[in-house]
Amino acid sequence: MIKDKRVNKIEEYIIQHKSVSLDELMNVFKVSKNTIRRDVQELVDSGDFKKVYGGVAVNDERAKLESFHDRQVRNQTEKEMIGKAAANYVHDGDIIFIDSGTTTIEMIDYINIKQVTVITNNLDFIVRALPYENINVITPGGILERKTNSFGILKYMDMLNTYNINKAFMASTGISLSNGVTNASPLESELKSSIVNRSSEVFLLIDHNKFDKYGLMTYCGLDKIDFLITDAIPSEVYQSYAKKNDIQLIIAE
Questions:
Q1: Phi/psi at 224 (nearest 5 deg)?
Q2: Residue 100 vs residue 196, higher pLDDT
Q3: Is the pLDDT score of 113 beyond 90?
Q4: For residues 142 and 121, what is the distance between their CA atoms, to the nearest angstrom?
Q5: Are 125 and 169 within 8 A, CB to CB?
Q6: What is each CA distance from 76 to 5, 70, 82, 83, 105, in whole angstroms?
Q7: Global pTM value
Q8: Which residues are CB-contacts of 109 (< 8 A; sequence separation ≥ 6)?
Q9: Which residues pair with 181 in a beta bridge?
Q10: For 114-163, what is each residue's pLDDT tens digit?
Q11: What is the pLDDT of the chain when averaged over all its residues?
Q12: Residue 67 contacts residue 234 (beta carbons within 8 Å)
């Protein structure tokens, strides 16, 4: 088994069992203790897992919801590149959804001359779109999630079925083959799932640090994505998955 695939399988195993010993991982994956230690260290370095006596466990800190500002200042250049690349797929007359997130917000600077209808729960996008009369903004409303500067819906989800969304530009706390596309806010997850199911084409905008990470809730499987826009070529495991599932991989430059 190649390393990347093995590490992904180990990640799935730890998530399933919450806490496992190194000896158990050795027996399950038929590799040496040194190999397991290196693989486990790689997972620990990602921040999703922590070492415990004789083994490794899921790091519950991963589920904490980070503030919008803390996320916004991280990898800002990469986010701008991804937002610009995503904007190339927006055309006059489109009806699009722009998700909450610090990467999707970067699209505003590149679509503000286009005639589009934007459905969004992204409060910052709504504010920044105010000067542009050519952008028709629709918000589904809901409960304001101050940590993410966005609205989360708990009721009246059926209203989304009246909109013919041809392109959805989604954000994520992290993605993995085992957990799919994830999110840290329970208030937003139902909305995200509904949008993915409703849209003709789904674009996922994530920087390279989001691979092999996961948040509190999964809002869709990775196979539901049509276009994956990121700033660096992902591992062979993700390249192979994208090819197998007809996901167009776009590297922003």
A1: -80, -10
A2: 196
A3: yes
A4: 9
A5: no
A6: 30, 11, 10, 10, 11
A7: 0.71
A8: 83, 84, 87
A9: 175, 220
A10: 999 999 988 889 999 999 999 999 987 777 776 666 776 655 566 677 78
A11: 84
A12: no
Query: 């092999």: which residue's tokens?
Result: 212
Number of domains in the chain: 2
38: CATH: 1.10.10.10
Sign of the CA dihedral running 147, 208, 61, 181: positive
CA 184, CA 237: separation in Å to the nearest integer?
24
pLDDT at residue 129, rounded to an integer: 92
In angstroms, rounded to a whole number, what is the distance separating the alpha carbons of residues 49 and 109? Answer: 37
The β-bridge partners of 21 are: 55
Q: Name the residue with higher pLDDT: 144 or 88.
A: 88
Q: Report percent pLDDT > 70 for the chain.
A: 87
The pLDDT value recorded for residue 153 is 63
**Domain interval for residue 236:** 68-251
Each residue's pLDDT tens digit, 200-248: 999 999 998 889 887 778 899 999 999 999 999 999 999 999 999 999 9
Neighbour order of strands in the sheet with 49-52 = 19-21, 55-58, 49-52
Which token pair is 224?
């539901």
In this structure, what CATH number is given to the domain that contains residue 84? 3.40.50.1360
The full length of the chain comes to 253
Kindly write down the DSSP assignment for every residue of 217-247, as one continuous string. EEEE-GGG-SEEEESS---HHHHHHHHHTTP
Sign of the alpha-carbon torsion through 215, 219, 225, 228: negative
Cα end-to-end distance, the chain, whole Å: 32
Tell whether 210 and 246 lie within a shared domain. yes
Residue 214 per-residue DSSP state: -
Contact 14, 48 (CB under 8 A): no
